[in-house]
C-alpha cells in the first residue's frame, strides 16, 4: 500500500490532500479516515489504498502510521517547576482569601496579576 503525509485537511470541507511518497497529490475524503477519526493534522503519516476518482487519485482505507509531534506537549513546563508554581499560587490565593474575609478586595493590579497566573497554570494543565 502507498504511504504519504497529509498536506492539509479541512474538517469543515470534509476533505484534504495527501502528498504521496511517489510524488502525487492524493484526494483524502473524510469518509476514508479510520473509524472514530474525524480529522488529521498536516504532517501525519498515512498508509492508504488508491482508487481513480473523478479528479484523480483518491485515498481509500486510510491507516494512520505516525502522528506529527505535538507542539503543545513539547512546550510544556517541567512538572517539578509547575508544581512549584502551583504551590506559590496557593499561597497567593490564601492571602487573597484572608483579605476577602476581612472585607479587603485585591487591588486591580493584584487581581490582574493573579488572573494571569491562574490562566497560565490552567493552560499548562490542559495542554
How would you describe this structure to a colleague?
The protein has helices at 71-74, 79-101, 108-126, and strands at 3-10, 15-20, 25-29, 45-53, 56-66. The chain has 127 residues and is an alpha+beta fold. Strands 3-2-1-4-5 form a 5-stranded antiparallel beta sheet, with no helix packed on it. Strand 1 and strand 2 form a beta hairpin. The protein starts with a strand and ends with a helix. The mean pLDDT is 89. GO terms for molecular function: nucleic acid binding. Residues 1-64 form the CSD domain. Pfam families: CSD.
Q: What keyword list fits this structure?
A:
five-stranded antiparallel β-sheet, OB fold (Dihydrolipoamide Acetyltransferase, E2P), 5 strands, 31% strand, 3 helices, alpha+beta, 127 residues
Amino acid at each position: 500500500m502507498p504511504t504519504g503525509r497529509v498536506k492539509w485537511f479541512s474538517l469543515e470541507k470534509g476533505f484534504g490532500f495527501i502528498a504521496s511518497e511517489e510524488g502525487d497529490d492524493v484526494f483524502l475524503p473524510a469518509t476514508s479516515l479510520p473509524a472514530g477519526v474525524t480529522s488529521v493534522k498536516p504532517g501525519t503519516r498515512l498508509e492508504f489504498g488508491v482508487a481513480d476518482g473523478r479528479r484523480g487519485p483518491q485515498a481509500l482505507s486510510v491507516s494512520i502510521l505516525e502522528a506529527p509531534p505535538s507542539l503543545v506537549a513539547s512546550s510544556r513546563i517541567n512538572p517539578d517547576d509547575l508544581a512549584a508554581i502551583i504551590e506559590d499560587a496557593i499561597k497567593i490565593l490564601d492571602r487573597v482569601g484572608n483579605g476577602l474575609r476581612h472585607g479587603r478586595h485585591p487591588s486591580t493590579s493584584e487581581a490582574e496579576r493573579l488572573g494571569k497566573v491562574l490562566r497560565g497554570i490552567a493552560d499548562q494543565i490542559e495542554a
